[in-house]
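**Paired protein data**
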Amino acid sequence: MINRVERIDEKLKALPKPALESIKEIFLQPEDTLILAAGFEDRCLGSVQYLEASGSKGFTALLIKYEPHTEENRMVDIMQSLSKMAAGVEEMTYDRCNPAGGGEALVEKLEKLGRTGAIYLDISAMSRFFIVQALVALGKSERGFSDTTVLYSEALNYPPDQAEVDKEIEKNGVDSIYRTMFISSGVYEVTIVPELASIVMYGQPVRLVAFPSFNIDQLASLKGDIQPYSSRYTVFPGKCLATGSD
C-alpha cells in the first residue's frame, strides 16, 4: 500500500482556525491583562472605549510604545483613558528599525508582571510585523493561546477615500506611478529576524507570500532581496481605491 504524504498547504488548511466574531462589549477582570499600541488613528482607542462603557476596572494594561517616536501617535489620550480604569499601566518600547526579539520581549514583560488572568491582545494600532512577532511568541510560550483573545477595531472609513484619490490624480495628471506614490513611498530596508526565519538549503525553491500595500516599492524590494532563489509567488491583493480593481 502506498500512502500519500500531505502537502504543507493541505496540512495548513486542515488546522483548526480561531473563531472570529463581532462583539459589542469587552469586560476585563482585575487579574486580566490588556496589550495595546499607541497609534495615530481613531480606532486605536476602540478597545479602551469599549472597556470604559462596560465598567471594567482594576486590570493591568501593557502599552506598546513605538520608536522612532511619531508625534501623531495618541499616547497621551490612551494613557488618560487607561488611568481611569487600569490598576497599573506598564510600557514597553518597540524599535521598528531594530525589531528582532520584539515578540520575546513582550512575553518576558508579561512573565514579569505575573498576571494569572486572560490576555487581551489589541492589534488595531500595531504594525503588521509586530503582530506576527507577538502571535508567534505568545503561541510558543508556556501559556500558549489557551487564554488569549485577539481584539481588532475596524475603522468606519479607511483613508484616502475615492474623492481624495481622484482629486490628486487629476491635479498631477494620469500617472500610474503617482497613484501609489502620493499615498505611500520609500522602503527603509527588508528586515529578516531570527525568530521568524528558518534554515534554507542552497538552491532549494522558495515561495514568496505577500500581502501588497499601495506602496509598489515594497513588493519590488522583497522580490529583489529574495532573488534568485525564489521561484514561486503567492499574492493576496486587497481592494485598491486608486485603480478600482481587486
Q: What stands out?
A: Confidence is low (pLDDT under 50) at residues 240-246.
